[in-house]
Design goal:
single chain, alpha+beta, 6-stranded mixed beta sheet, 5-stranded mixed beta sheet, 15 strands, globular, disordered N terminus
Length: 255
Amino acid sequence: MINPSLAGLSESESLPGCKSVPTDTRATARMGSRNLSCFWEWGRKIVCVGRNYAEHARELENPVSTSEPLLFLKPPSAYLREGSPLRLPHYSSNVHHEVELGVVVAKGGSHIPQGDAMDHVGGYALCLDMTARDVQDECKKKGHPWTLAKAFDCSCPVSDFIPKGRVPDPQRLTLWLKVNGQLRQRGSTSQMIFPVPFLVHYISRIIRLEEGDLILTGTPAGVSAVQAHDELQAGIDDLITMKFTVEGNSPSYSQ
């Protein structure tokens, strides 16, 4: 058991689809060789942490582990940006929202010491881990991986990039999510079982972290099902908000 750039761009330029980075945060965006503020366009993987908030684990009647994190993956095709419809997978009738703090990796590495972990973080993002709960329940019963429940297209809506300098302490943030104006989730990142530095350290001992990778750090309690035409609004304190509209099931494909 494991124990717990903007290179080539002028000052006024940014890559297509990305907002320009304010001058006072360009040092963070330049930590690597690429435009970190557009990580969703070129990042290679999304590493997710399950059951990192005890109350969320309990609300789904799952065990709470304090020995090591539970990990799963999403592909880059899971990314969804604000303004695009949130389509649900055709094979699920019970898709849940999970609001999360995302950690954007600026400097890759493996076996990263916990004391150096924050040197590898370039910023953050507000994220949703959309989950096909009925499918996940079946996967758990059969002992199967959670890929069908977690890795479908549109399963990772993300906000604009939040530079590291705007977040003095990632363990002192409040996450919230509303569905059609009703508050469903509200929780503090101080409630994480495994904090951000430990997650960077732990994951890097199993999977080499690369520039542009995203780490989803888990969700607080209050998850619930969404339906077609629901409006999801989420935020982190006064740092950022985002909004998505659920369009309904994505089309099925004949064999």
